[in-house]
Write a structure and sequence with these properties.
six-stranded mixed sheet, single chain, globular, alpha/beta, 406 residues, seven-stranded mixed sheet, Archaeosine Trna-guanine Transglycosylase, Chain: A, domain 4, Rossmann fold, 10 helices, Transcription Regulator spoIIAA, 3 domains
Length: 406
């Protein structure tokens, strides 16, 4: 077996790893044995020299992202079995052979025991996003594994990691002609540019993984969009932070009399209009506005029977959670003021740093500001193709509530 560099923990710092938590923080490290560069595979040992886990070494407070707790060779077969296991789960969920849904998350970081790696499947195109240098360095293997799993069904592999992966490697490990401390460049790793049309529960969407947010589409909201379709009948709906209009399409398909889509991005509104047209929706039932949502909620005099609030992450780090909570209180309070009696508020947080309890407390504070009677109808989270390891509760990043506002 290959001998990897070792990371040795301080005394009594192994408890989290024995509970299979996949993050090792830098403060727990006593020393390293052998040279450890960012992106290297390392083995973690207790101070008494007991093997604990294996993972990718990296700079930052999370010093090692752990992908196995069994001592073994980390080679092509290892990565292939991890991704094949993720594929088998999506098959069991009915996603890999569905005609009504042709897009799903194939790999969800820690939830699939592959921390630092996301792979989304868009009707023949796999979009890879790495959040660690270690995962970036195995991309050639990832492409070949995807070819083996999907065969001729794989048309292209696109790398969307420019915003998430920083190259900081020794000269011997530099990738291509990129220097140290440069970000990865987005681009096709296999195949040629493809049509971005997908189907989700029978609805058609255009996904632009090259220019869009994240990997191009918010697959985590699939099941939650079905709630929007269920509740929208005969309602006037506001879809705030609409992005490419998926919630708007579902609401209109559910019988909404009017949907108003608002986003600060002109491109997002253009995508929304394209997606409405793809689904044959009468444009007279839809209005759109390029506007800052917070300002729109404060200044608008319109009222709605249902409002959908799906903002971007207000807190990406724990040290700004207070400001983020104030932002959630503000936008939800303003939304509650705009809902007609008996109406519905669908509200979300995708900030990992905001716990479910913190988010619920923020919504309660917003309700208190308005003085309205509000009841919780549903607690929501991400879809099952974004599984959460029982040992890594931080993986449940998406929190949602459906509220009735009297």
């Amino acid at each position: 077996m290959t001998r990897y560099p070792r990371v040795v923990l301080k005394k009594d710092k192994e408890a989290a790893l024995k509970r299979f938590h996949p993050w090792l923080f830098s403060g727990a490290i006593e020393r390293t044995i052998g040279t450890c560069f960012p992106g290297d595979i390392v083995e973690v040992y207790s101070i008494s020299h007991d093997y604990l886990a294996t993972g990718h070494f990296q700079d930052g407070s999370i010093a090692v992202k752990l992908f196995t707790f069994q001592q073994q060779e980390i080679d092509y077969s290892f990565w292939k079995e991890k991704i094949a296991r993720a594929y088998r789960l999506r098959t069991a969920l009915g996603l890999t052979s569905s005609f009504s849904t042709t897009a799903y998350r194939l790999v969800f970081t820690e939830g699939d025991e592959l921390p630092g790696l996301i792979i989304d499947w868009y009707n023949g195109v796999a979009v890879i996003q790495t959040h660690s240098l270690g995962m970036h360095l195995i991309k050639p293997d990832l492409v070949n594994i995807l070819k083996e799993i999907y065969g001729e069904g794989l048309k292209a592999v696109y790398d969307k990691s420019a915003e998430t992966t920083l190259l900081s490697v020794p000269p011997s490990k530099e990738v291509g002609d990129k220097g140290r401390n440069n970000r990865v460049e987005d681009g096709y790793l296999f195949g040629i540019p493809q049509n971005g049309l997908i189907t989700e529960t029978g609805h058609t969407f255009l996904v632009d993984w090259e220019r869009g947010q994240k990997t191009g589409f918010f697959l985590d909201q699939r099941s939650n969009r079905m709630f929007a379709q269920f509740y929208a009948e005969n309602k006037k709906v506001l879809n705030a932070f609409c992005y490419s209009g998926a919630f708007s399409v579902y609401a209109l398909k559910g019988g909404a009399i009017l949907v108003h889509s608002v986003d600060s991005s002109k491109q997002a509104i253009e995508w929304t209009k394209e997606n409405l047209a793809l689904n044959g929706i009468d444009s007279t039932r839809h209005e759109s506005s390029v506007a800052d949502v917070k300002r729109f909620l404060v200044q608008s005099t319109a009222t709605y029977d249902m409002i959908i609030l799906d903002p971007p992450a207000f807190a990406k780090h724990h040290n700004i959670t207070h400001n983020a909570l104030q932002a959630y209180i503000h936008i939800n309070s303003e939304a509650m003021k705009k809902i007609n009696p008996g109406g519905i508020l669908m509200t979300y947080s995708c900030s990992q740093a905001i716990s479910r309890e913190m988010f619920r407390s923020a919504i309660q504070a917003a309700a208190l500001e308005t003085g309205r009677k509000i009841r919780i109808l549903h607690h929501l989270s991400q879809g099952p193709d974004h599984p959460v390891s029982i040992y890594h509760p931080e993986g449940e990043y998406l929190k949602g509530l459906i509220l009735q506002v009297d």
